[in-house]
Amino acid sequence: MVTKTYAALLRGINVSGHKKVPMARLRALLEGLGHGGVQTYLQSGNAVFTAAHGDEESLAAQLGAAIAEEFGFAVDVLVRDGAYLRAVADACPFPAATLEAKQLHVTYFSAPVDADRFAPIDQSAYLPEEFRLGDRVLYLYAPDGLGRSKLAAQLARPGLTKGLVATTRNWNTVTRLVEMTRD
Question: A Pfam family for this UniProt protein (predicted)?
Answer without folding.
Answer: DUF1697
